[in-house]
Design a protein that fits this description.
There is one protein chain. This protein is α+β, with helices and mostly antiparallel strands. The chain folds into two domains: about 250 residues, Rossmann fold, CATH 3.40.50; about 120 residues, Beta Barrel (OB fold (Dihydrolipoamide Acetyltransferase, E2P)). Helix content is about 20%, strand content about 35%. The strands form five sheets. Strands 8-9-10-5-11-12 form a six-stranded mixed beta sheet, sandwiched between helices. It has a five-stranded antiparallel beta sheet with strand order 15-14-13-16-22. Strand 3 and strand 4 form a beta hairpin. The longest helix is centred in the middle third of the chain and has 18 residues. The radius of gyration is 25 Å and the shape is globular. The N and C termini lie far apart (about 55 Å).
Length: about 375
């Protein structure tokens, strides 16, 4: 098999799009970089129901974007509009600066991976992967070489002669991905492709998809309702709710600095503390909770007086068995050992509930229900929602 070249580029913010593996010596292949996508005020109606409303999004060439949201948020509808399965009711979609919303699905040149594998049961793995090449009229020798390369990339080289019914779910999904990328599309759309797999296999294929993205450099739009999956795989995550784009950000920014209660609650576990703002100095706010506990948090924008909601992630809470300065006394209501972490639920005298996740250590004792502990956190651990 010929050497695969790996793209290396940056977007307009200087963020790496793809790079050669360390020590590979692979040169830049500019043709492998994916297309840019631009959505401008996109909307979709189903009867009188506004399924998508004023969606605007810029995707850089070679970027991995995840569309994340609960059921009914509009993420799959948006993907189907990009694929051309649904027509556009409002706005426009551009690929590399050219409008495509009037271009038929089969002429858009996108790769598509569905939740169901959608493989031909009477065809072998190699025949399934070769199908798009045959439809495109590629000559047999070139097609055979392309199929062999693609199967090798997806670690399916030894499975070429098997039928889909002779393979596991994970192997079938690899075949579906291989079929989607065999034409080397500049854009690949993935609609919850891992939802039918068990946890260990899902995590394994997440890594493989990321490696594939770095190898081919295609622009990928990936739909999921799994927050962990989105945080693991994405360059940026677009969160949708009720047909609207709520926030788009890099995974760490999204997790640490959500824009509102919905994003804070939907992306990861969270403690949301209602408090009164006592003072503001720059980005640092002094707050007082219902129990009278005074603590500090950060905010880039927002009020300097009145009420506020503070986000405190469970892993940012420090626990002590002894009273500590500025600590909040809490009573343990639940304590679970989950292997690498302890998951503890506690409540203050004023009825404020806290979820705490502590790394397990050799000397750590799992608290008992009814124990009194002192919870503490710093300003950098607490984000005040705007």
């Amino acid at each position: 098999m010929r050497e695969m070249r790996m793209p290396s580029s940056t977007d307009e913010r200087g963020t790496p799009v793809g790079r050669a593996a360390p020590g590979s010596g692979a040169a830049v292949d500019r043709d492998a970089i994916g297309s840019s996508l631009r959505l401008r005020s996109v909307g979709k109606y189903f009867g009188g129901f506004h399924a998508l409303e004023d969606i605007s999004l810029d995707v850089q060439p070679g970027e991995f974007i995840t569309l994340l949201g609960p059921s009914g948020s509009g993420k799959t509808t948006l993907l189907n509009m990009l694929a051309g399965f649904y027509g556009l009711d409002e706005g426009e979609i551009l690929v590399d600066g050219r409008p495509i919303h009037h271009v038929p699905t089969h002429r858009r040149g996108f790769g598509m991976v569905f939740q169901s594998y959608a493989l031909f049961p009477n065809m072998t793995v190699a025949q399934n992967v070769a199908f798009p090449l045959r439809m495109a009229g590629m000559d047999q020798s070139t097609a055979e070489r392309r199929v062999a390369e693609t199967l090798e990339i997806m670690r399916l080289g030894e499975q070429a002669a098997k039928l889909p019914t002779q393979m596991s779910g994970g192997q079938q999904q690899r075949v579906a991905i291989a079929r989607a990328i065999v034409m080397r599309p500049k854009v690949v759309l993935m609609d919850e492709p891992l939802s039918a797999l068990d946890r260990r296999l899902r995590e394994q294929i997440q890594i493989e998809i990321r490696e594939l993205h770095q190898t081919l450099g295609s622009t990928i739009l990936f739909v999921t309702h799994d927050q962990g999956e989105a945080l693991t795989m994405s360059d940026r995550i677009a969160v949708l709710d009720g047909g609207k784009l709520v926030q788009i950000a890099e995974p760490m920014e999204l997790y640490r600095h959500p824009v509102n209660r919905f994003v804070a609650s939907f992306v990861g576990e969270s403690n949301l503390i209602e408090a009164e703002i006592l003072e503001r100095r720059g980005e640092t706010l002094t707050l007082r909770s219902a129990s009278g506990h005074v603590f500090h948090g950060r905010a880039r924008h927002g009020a300097s007086a009145g009420r506020a909601t503070a986000l405190l992630r469970p892993e940012r809470v420090a626990l002590s068995a002894q009273p500590v300065a500025d600590g909040l006394p809490v009573r343990v209501t639940s304590a679970l050992f989950l292997g690498e972490i302890q998951r503890i639920e506690a409540v203050s005298e004023a009825g404020e509930h806290l979820l705490i996740r502590c790394a397990d250590t050799s000397c750590a004792r799992l608290p008992s229900v009814g124990d009194t502990l002192w919870a503490g956190w710093g300003a950098d651990d607490c984000w005040v929602l705007s």
